[in-house]
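Board notes (copied after class):
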Amino acid sequence: MATIDRIKYDSTSDEILVFKFPSEELKLGSQLVVNQSQEAVFVKGGKVCDVFPPGTHTLSTGNLPLLSKLVNMPFGQQTPFTAEVWFVSKTVKRDLRWGTKAPIPLIDPTYNYPISVRAFGRWGVRVNESKLFVREIVGTLGMADSVKVLEYFTGEIQQRFSNVLAGFFVREKVSIFDANNRLNDLSAASMAAIRPELQRFGIELVNFNVERVSIPEDELARMQEVLGRRMEIDQISKSTVGPAYTTMRTFDTLQAAASNPGGATGAMLAGGLGLGMGVGAGLPLGKQAGEAMDARPQSPETAKNDPVGRLQALKQMLDSNLITNDEYDAKKKEILNGL
């Protein structure tokens, strides 16, 4: 194979981080042309030998001292030799995209509830140590394709961002629902955690921005349902139920009973509602149903000091599927312990 007299690489894309010159058959006296914002790194047997800055260089034993020792080249001759030449881009890559591939499971510190989130943003890097970059990326990881290199670092970003995200909400005592109001703080915390990892490879993290944190729609709907139920339970357990709330829940119970004609109350209600009873008949019906289900409203002070009434109300909530069995057992135990 013929030796190369001129070694040069003109980048065709701003996303190229590293490019390997296609031929390894070189010779002393060849012209090495390194463009602005580039550095050329010579590698022999997996060992980084020499680094050349921008400019035109005539290869000689004088400017290839480490390589000369490895191949034992005579001084002053156009000796052929084999070596890899890697061109490393030194330009800043600012508009790189990152995003979580899968939702990140977290515990909301405000509501103490598990929920998953996704996040998206942009990041920017610059190779500031070409020798270290080529040695770690090409030599250690065996990656020569710029796309794969960026994919590797995107994966590293996702992993570290997940840890930062979980710790950030706990440390700052911020609900996940307020995440998009704290994007600047979250971006700064993420950048501080990710920067040291990239420095190991000779890469400077120029910018890291979290642009959006989102909750999947199904997760959001489920959390809203659970939180709504918790609010209802908290209202009742604190005995702060007002007449309007009692009336609303009584009507819900009437509807549930009317749809279940198996019981006596259900049969009476189903028959009454089925006949299209008017407003005048609604008052005695409400009174009869309230007496049948012991749903008479009490003052807040009376309800607070009446464990029997609280237990009856709790049982009615369970029967109406307003609370779960676990919630019923926990609240029942709390009431009994207070006797």
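Comment from the instructor: The first helix runs from residue 65 to 71. Residues 267-296 have pLDDT under 50 and may be disordered.
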